[in-house]
Amino acid sequence: MTSNPTMGLAGVVAGRTSLSTVGKEGCGLTYRGYSIEDLAERSTFEEVAWLLLRGELPTSPQLTDYRTRLQSLRELPAGLKAVLEQLPETAHPMDVLRTGCSALGCLEPELATSGTFDVVDRLLATFPSMLAYWHWFQTRTMRIETHSEEDSMAGHFLHLLHGQRPSELHRQAFDASLILYAEHEFNASTFTARVVTSTLSDFYSAITGAIGTLRGPLHGGANEAAFDLINEFASPNDAERGVLERLARKDKIMGFGHRVYRDCDPRSPIIQQWAKRLADEVGDTRLYPVSERIEAVLRREKKLFPNLDFYSASAFHFLGIPTLFFTPLFVFSRTAGWGAHILEQRSENRLIRPTADYIGPEPRAFVPLEVRRTV
Ligand code: COA
């Protein structure tokens, strides 16, 4: 079968948005007009979430109130804890979040009287708590408290995960990665959220669908797969050999390439700098040099560039985060972007229902069961 130009909807304008631009000036990324470089260097994840959801950067009192509000929403209802306790240790953490989101939608459904931001704020506040609660219960049979003194998502999650306050370097590095992951126009999971929303379904259903979409290795799951690859190699030379073998087999190298960006992903150099700082801090002499060599080989052999997921993988590892949690971290952050798209879709909704080119058989006469022949 020959592929047609709209396969995968590549290049198709499927709607409009005021949230972000991706690759508009070749390599750029902006959230509501602000460059990703400025946001990653000069703001925090909570400011970015507010910006995406409310349209403008918060003032100082607004930010303080927002942090306090999110902090106050971190507790999990008893019914959700009971559900999380039933999910086995072997479950993929993305499935845990998908189930947790759906369960919360049963326990605290979105109502006609719900405030515009009620569900998205609750999800932003509880996703880190859900993952940490399930993790500690399944690995140590501990029922942890899911509140902390930390007023940032980054600090809060690292605190819950490691049972102690993170260093300022770790909090900042994680916060920067949350900013980078927060929004990316009509990517597959966001588009899913918009399709679900366009049927006038509820917020939880849209986010649950988005989590399922993000899970795949061609999308969010790439950061996990990228780490597994990097971690396989003992040295840069070993990595060069291994990657060349994979390319010869026509394998895809996870964490490289992009549907929209053609020459570079503007988020990659930012997370790469953080990965380098974290590597230096732990005295790493393997993972970071291996990553650099893989990048060099992919550029030389295929003119492919690393996307956000590639250096995020080693950055997350240096933060002491288990590999299976990498894609869930993406959920924590992207919930801000998904939420903003859901609200935007609602503000000028029309059912999203494209059509397909039919490539099946011509119309034909029905064959009764008794005369059908088995081949
Ligand atoms: N490794 C090896 N080759 C790659 C590649 C990768 N990561 N990404 C693209 N290519 C090659 C393809 O094999 C194809 O080569 P061909 O024309 O010789 O067949 C060409 O580049 C075009 O790739 P294609 O998969 O058609 O591009 P796409 O726009 O459909 O896919 C991605 C974009 C992101 C799905 C793709 O680059 C990919 O699978 N990357 C790895 C997964 C990943 O990191 N995802 C996270 C994205 S942020």
Textual characterization of the structure:
This protein has 16 helices and 3 strands. The chain is mostly helical and 375 residues long. The chain has 2 domains: 225 residues, Citrate Synthase, domain 1; 97 residues, Cytochrome p450-Terp, domain 2 (Orthogonal Bundle), CATH 1.10.230. The protein has a 3-stranded antiparallel sheet. Strand 1 and strand 2 form a beta hairpin. It starts with 19 loop residues before the first strand and ends in a 28-residue tail after the last helix. The relative contact order is 0.14. Bound molecules: coenzyme A. Coenzyme A binds next to loops.
Spatial separation of the terminal alpha carbons: 24 Å
Overall strand count: 3
- CATH top level label of the largest domain: Mainly Alpha
Strand sequence of the main sheet, in spatial order? 1-2-3
Give a quick precis of the structure:
It is built from 16 helices and three strands.
Task: Give structural attributes.
375 residues; mainly alpha; Citrate Synthase, domain 1; Cytochrome p450-Terp, domain 2; 2 domains; three-stranded antiparallel beta sheet; 16 helices; 3 strands; 2% strand; globular; binds coenzyme A
Explain the layout of strands and helices.
Elements (H helix, E strand, L loop, with lengths): L19 E3 L6 E3 L2 E2 H7 L2 H10 L5 H13 L5 H9 L6 H15 L10 H23 L12 H10 L5 H14 L6 H11 L4 H12 L7 H11 L3 H13 L18 H16 L4 H16 L5 H11 L7 H22 L28
Bound molecules: coenzyme A.
